[in-house]
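Researcher: Let's do a round of design. I'm pasting the structure tokens now; please hold your answer until I've finished.
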């Protein structure tokens, strides 16, 4: 009894399969017919669409701020001058001393000239000019951009040493 039923089912599978495939590949019944061309005219091929040149928008200029800083290096810090012999703890204490005086209202430029080990900005009163955030090492950039103009940061540690930052613009 099972064999005849199996043969009957086997015979139906191709019919069902091909019917389903035909339904998938047949055009839909509501397909729109193309409009007939006017009598006696030959349909000209349509021209290819015109390509127009698209220009990318100019890169957005990165925000820049102005800041000054005091850098206190120690002998193992990155780019420390060979004359720097202080330890990391001594450098932190020196930076804390400069920060305390800056927060008390002492002239930041004078403090930078006295305390900073940065050969580029120390002699200029710590002035770094205008710069984008990505130009500085991440801890410095993050701290400087978190300040409002006129504000002074706490101690910011980077590979270069300890910084006290004053946002100027």
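Researcher: That's everything. Go ahead.
Model: Designed sequence:
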């Amino acid at each position: 009894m099972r064999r005849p039923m199996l043969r009957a089912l086997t015979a139906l599978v191709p019919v069902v399969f091909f019917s389903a495939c035909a339904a998938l590949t047949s055009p839909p019944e509501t397909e729109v017919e193309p409009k007939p061309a006017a009598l006696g005219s030959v349909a000209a091929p349509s021209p290819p669409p015109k390509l127009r040149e698209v220009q990318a928008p100019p890169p957005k200029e990165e925000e820049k701020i102005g800041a000054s800083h005091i850098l206190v290096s120690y002998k193992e810090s990155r780019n420390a001058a060979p004359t720097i012999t202080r330890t990391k703890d001594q450098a932190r204490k020196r930076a804390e001393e400069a920060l305390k005086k800056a927060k008390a209202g002492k002239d930041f430029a004078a403090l930078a000239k006295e305390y900073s080990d940065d050969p580029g900005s120390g002699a200029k009163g710590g002035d770094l000019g205008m710069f984008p955030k990505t130009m500085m090492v991440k801890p410095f950039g993050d701290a400087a951009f978190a300040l409002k103009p006129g504000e002074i940061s706490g101690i910011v540690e980077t590979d270069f040493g300890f910084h006290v930052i004053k946002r100027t613009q």
